[in-house]
Design goal:
Strand content: 15-25%
Number of strands: 3
Distance between the termini: 29 Å
Number of domains: 1
Structural class: alpha+beta
Shape: globular
CATH class: Alpha Beta
Order of helices and strands: EEHHEHH
Radius of gyration: 14 Å
Strand order of the largest sheet: 2-1-3
Largest sheet: 3 strands, antiparallel
CATH topology: GIY-YIG endonuclease
Number of helices: 4
């Protein structure tokens, strides 16, 4: 699987990236080896991940998400959280869904 992920930095900003394992990637960010942007904004917390079968689809989506405004990214994060809670309640599971539906366009990488 290929993932687009968003981490929330200690200063409140959002960072979007691509990874094969978003949890391990967040650990790398927290170790100061993830990205220059996040190195000085630790700790980070993984707040969103979206799964894709192909690397091409994941990279296209990463580009779309990076261009979203901060408000739209926050909406994406909130919607995923609401979806996760609804699915957990319905299935009795504590696991997050692996794929979000829909594509939104916008602008701004860092989401400040």
């Amino acid at each position: 699987m290929h993932f687009v992920y968003i981490v929330r930095c200690a200063d409140g900003t959002l960072y979007t990236g691509y990874a094969r394992d978003p949890g391990k990637r967040a650990e790398l960010h927290n170790a100061g080896r993830g990205a220059r942007y996040t190195a000085g904004r630790r700790p980070v917390s993984l707040v969103y991940a979206e799964a894709f079968e192909s690397v091409g689809d994941a990279l296209k989506r990463e580009h779309q998400v990076k261009r979203l405004s901060r408000a739209l990214k926050e909406g994406l994060i909130a919607t995923r959280g609401a979806l996760r809670h609804a699915q957990d309640a319905a299935s009795g599971s504590k696991r997050a869904p692996r794929q979000a539906q829909g594509v939104v366009s916008g602008s701004n990488h860092a989401g400040r």
